[in-house]
Amino acid sequence: MELLRAGAVAVGAAGAELVAGLDLRLATGDRLGLVGPNGSGKSTLLRVLAGVAAPLDGRVARPPGVRVGLLPQSVAALPGRTVTEVLRAATLRARELEARLRESETRLAFGGTADDAVEHAALAAEFDRAGGYGAEAAAREVAAALGFRAGGRDLTCAELSPGERRRLQLAVTLAAAPDVLLLDEPTNHLDLTAREWLTRRLGAYAGAVVVVSHDRALLDAATTRTLFLAEGRAWHEPGPYSLARRRRDAAVGAGHKRARELERDARRLERMAVELAAFGRKAAARRRRAERDGRALRVEARVAAPAERVAPPQLAPRQAPSTRLRAAGGETLVTVRHLAAEGLLSDVGLELRRGERVVLVGPNGSGKSTVLRAVAGDLTGLGPRAELDYLPGVKLRVVDQLDRGLTPGVPLLEQVAAAVGEAAGRRLLADAGVPARTWELTPEQVSGGERIRAGLALAFAHPADLWLLDEPTNDLDLAAVEALETQLTAMLAGGSAALLLVTHDRRLAERVADEAWSVVDGSLLRYRDVGAYLRGEHEPDAPVPPAVATTTVATTAVAWADPPGVAETHPPAAAAAVARRPRPGWSDPALLALEDERAAVLRMLDDPRDQTARDRERLLRRLNELEAALMARYGDLVPPPAPRYRVVEGGAVVVGDVLTDRSVGTKSEGRQLLLLRFAEAAQTLGGARSGGAAGAGAGPAHDPWAPGVAAGPRPPEARATLVDGVAHLRLLEPADACLLPWARSALVDAATRLAFTVMGAEAVQLQSEAPPGARWLRPVADGWHVAELRDYLRAEGWA
Fold first, then answer.
1. Residues 6+ away with beta carbon under 8 Å from 357
2. In the chain, what are the helix, strand and coil shares in percent, each to the nearest 5?
3. Cα 199 to the center of its chain, rounded Å
């Protein structure tokens, strides 16, 4: 269903035309990414599509009843005094439609007409599109995903920070469930977890979506086609951003090549026309034809060039990595201990070593910038015990979130010139994309994008041993973010410089960082990568070394939890410490090499365009080999899983599990196998065996069996194999112990219950000379005892 159409639209701002001749159609299920440099007209185009602003030319049309929701880049007034009122206002249309639907149902109940029936069907369909009876619950779910938990919904809008108001405005826009969703930078003020949620939400949106964002991970996962805006022109490319960008770059390159060829032919025709002019009237017709063809070729050349090639901003000049510290002793560049901040950090410490590249991730306000500020040397408000040690001679470069590494009140060019000289400073600012008109302005007088470009250019003017970057992608457009990623990667490659990066840009974090840290409940947790952080899979811990000449046990910056079955190897005082190095076994170089190779193979499989079918088959085969090897190594480190099922029968606790026995049954499916044993059999042994079966008085009522040897017997087990719907039950009693009758009954009853409820058996049978004393099994012949599902269900009270 077509939801919106724009024909020959031209948009502009401040009297200047930004885009002309734009044609756009949006239908149900369309998800369009809108990209372009800052100032190219993206936000203005969204306002025009929403009907908030009028186009300079052309027309935007929508079918009757189609609703459009716009999230502007600036925070607008919210429809309510408190968060709860704002969220309730988002579902106002659903409540109004519900009231009208009830009125329509009343009319139909009292003999409505055919028109009333048609109106009722239309109202029901519109009510469903607006969220139906679950609209308010959906609004609360959206708000919770964006950080507004139940406890914070009574806050007034005036009490919210600008970032919280922005997130609340996004929640209102999504909860309203419009047919066409227009989002201008929706990821602003969202952490990684919220961005992942929003990506999934947009990817499954029922209507049409147009999103402006510099988050490449979101654009790649949530959009299906891309609209580029640049230099007053617009062009469409199928596919998400990364694929569309490669196609567009290839088209631009081919177009410029074709334009150069046409320009060369036009010049040749012009020279021919000049030569023909010397022949006078005899060659006049040929001369005019040559001039006409030359003009036509020049017009065709202008059309063939899709857009001018714009060099990406050079935020990081190519420079060799720092080598001053290579001769210095020690690998640790900075060590921080005993950081404490109320509500954020609790006795935390960390260390950064040569070549480490760490990204700090986590919710807004969790303490990421506080940790980076401490590493940069500012321990203000971080507790009286806070300590900071640097390797002598270490060189830091800091780009913070507020000043961007610039000195307030000093013109941009003056600051850069003081570092590299005036001529080099002018080149540096120009290459970084900072307009010349802003060079004599102070950081407070320029825009956020101009300030971060100047700050990065100044920071990257010289190499450093440790880079501290706090949200460097804020206020940068896509081209600048990609340039930062490329040049930062090149600058760090092959060197010993370390990086501590705070960012919510998943793609940048994955490309430049080797591991992730996150502040959780006052401590830092360490993760293998950003994906592990999103899955909640943090690493084990090891303590940071204490300070020199002190006996205090220092805690570390990343608090680890042990893998299942791995015992504590550090003293209790350091149990909450943050690990800098995984423990032996988990840090096995061979294991890490397998993990790194698997990650590399997965990255190659993500982009199959440059692979032949044979290449892809070889990669998949290698991936299977790597995962098999990894599972074998992890199987050696991790103990077997605990039983999944726990049953209490006759006062005895029985534990068990259902496994797949692939040695029997079909090769692909195997056969279900039930294993059970007493949970505390090893602690309930007592009394001597007296040759025959022990009586009820042979031991305490809670002792299921008595040992016959001092070393202790193997515990009794019950096993059931499912064949054609029948569970074949066996009791495995140890030869050196006696299983008491009540314990045997408990084991058989537990096995029968799990066979019916977990394995899905239709019947259970047991062959035993001794009476099992079970509740559901009944004797049939030759020692066989059988229980049927209907008897079990009837005994359990199921009709």
1. 492, 498, 499, 501, 512, 513, 514, 515
2. 40, 25, 40
3. 8
What are residue 469's phi and psi, to 5 degrees?
-120, 120
How many CA atoms does the CB half-sphere of 72 hold within 13 Å?
A: 12
**CB-side exposure of 320: number of CA atoms within 13 Å?**
3
User: Which phi-psi region, left, alpha or beta, contains residue 462 (left: φ > 0; alpha: ψ -120 to 50)?
Assistant: beta
Residue 333, both tokens: 């560049």
The rounded distance, in Å, linking the Cα atoms of 218 and 194 is: 11
| Domain boundaries, given as residue ranges, for the chain | 1-67+178-239, 254-304, 406-462, 589-637, 645-795
User: For 155-182, what is the mean pLDDT?
Assistant: 82
CB atoms within 10 A of CB 657: 16
Contact 59, 10 (CB under 8 A): no
CA-CA-CA-CA dihedral for 383, 389, 395, 397, to nearest 10: -20
Please state, in angstroms and rounded to a whole number, the distance separating the CA atoms of residues 112 and 115.
Answer: 8
Write out the H or E segment, with its range, that includes residue 673: strand 670-678
Q: Calculate ∠ Cα 186-187-189, nearest 5°.
A: 110
Predicted confidence (pLDDT) per residue in 684-709, tens digit: 333 333 232 223 333 333 333 333 33
**DSSP state letters, 97-142:** HHHHHHHHHHHHHTT--HHHHHHHHHHHHHHHHTTGGGHHHHHHHH
- Give buried/exposed letters for 517-547 (b at 16+ CB in 10 A, else e): bbbbebbbbbbbbbeebbeeebbbbbbbebb
Parallel, antiparallel, or unpaired for β 57-61 and 31-35? unpaired
| Overall average pLDDT of the 590-611 stretch | 80
561, pLDDT greater than 50: no
Sheet arrangement for strand 332-341: 345-353, 332-341, 387-390
Give dist(CA 598, CA 625) in Å, integer. Answer: 10
200 by DSSP, 3-state: which?
helix
Give the range among 60-74, 270-284, 481-495, 640-654 with minimum mean pLDDT: 270-284
What is the side-by-side order of every strand in the sheet holding 2-13? 16-27, 2-13, 57-61
Q: In whole angstroms, how far apart are CA 38 and each of 187, 217, 510?
A: 16, 19, 25
Write the CA distances from 486 to 293, 476, 596, integer angstroms: 44, 14, 21
| Residue 660 phi, psi (nearest 5) | -110, 115
Class of the 1-67+178-239 domain?
A: alpha beta
∠ Cα 303 309 313 (to 5°): 160
Q: Which of the residue ranges 129-133, 157-161, 306-310, 534-538 has the most confident prediction, judged by mean pLDDT? A: 534-538
How far apart CA 410 and CA 139 sit, in angstroms, is 47
Mean pLDDT of 298-307: 57
Identify the residue whose tokens are 């507790």: 383
How many angstroms separate the CA atoms of 104 and 127, rounded?
13
Cα–chain-centroid distance for residue 396? 30
- Cβ burial, residue 280 (10 Å; 0-12/13-18/19+): exposed
Angle between helices 83-90 and 162-175 (to 10 degrees): 30
Residues 6 or more apart in contact with residue 86 via CB below 8 angstroms: 78, 79, 80, 157, 168, 172
Residues 6+ positions from 119 with CB-CB distance below 8 Å: 104
Q: What global pTM score does this model have?
A: 0.58
Closest CA to 491 of 475, 518, 469, 516: 469
When the pLDDT of each residue in the chain is averaged and rounded to a whole number, the result is 75
Q: What is the distance between the terminal CA atoms of the chain, rounded to a whole angstrom?
A: 49
Task: Give the distance from CA 69 to its chain's centroid.
Answer: 25
Name 27's bridge partners.
Answer: 2
Query: Per the structure block, which two tokens stand in for 576?
Result: 């909450």
pLDDT digits (tens, 9 = 90+) for 502-554: 888 888 888 888 888 888 888 888 888 888 888 887 776 544 545 443 323 23
